[in-house]
Amino acid sequence: MSRLVQHNSTAPVPIKSPADGSPTWICQCGLSKNQPLCDGSHQACKDEDSNKLYEYNEKLERNELSQSPRPSSVYKS
Ligand code: FES
Questions:
Q1: Does the residue 26 lie in any domain?
Q2: Range of the domain at 61
Q3: Is 45 close to ligand 1, i.e. is its CB under 6 Å away?
Q4: How many other CB atoms are found less than 10 A from the CB of residue 28?
Q5: 46, 48, 50, 52 — which has fewest CB within 10 A?
Q6: For residue 54, how many other CB atoms are within 10 A of its CB?
């Protein structure tokens, strides 16, 4: 079984430590290989066109999709 997940964010979100306020960066782009933590892979999607849909391979190479998947098969985060 596989599933397709759509992410619209191109940057991480900081979660501050209650102990000392230091941030832990949580991935929101979906490309990190160290989920749920950001590993900097979001750099690959910084210049995306917000009106287009892309997919990425393991090497973070981008492919623009010519057709959007059916809306019922996509979870947006
Ligand atoms: S936000 Fe996903 S790798 Fe940084």
A1: yes
A2: 10-68
A3: no
A4: 18
A5: 50
A6: 13
Does 47 fall in a domain? Answer: yes
Tell me which DSSP letter residue 69 carries: P
Q: Answer whether 41 contacts ligand 1 (Cβ < 6 A).
A: yes
Q: How far is CA 19 from CA 4, 25, 36, 58, 67, in A?
A: 37, 16, 20, 36, 47
Is the peptide bond between 36 and the residue preceding it cis, with omega within 30 degrees of 0? yes
CA 57 – CA 20 distance, rounded (Å): 37
Structural domain contains residue 18: yes
Structure tokens at 59: 């090497």
pTM across the whole model: 0.81
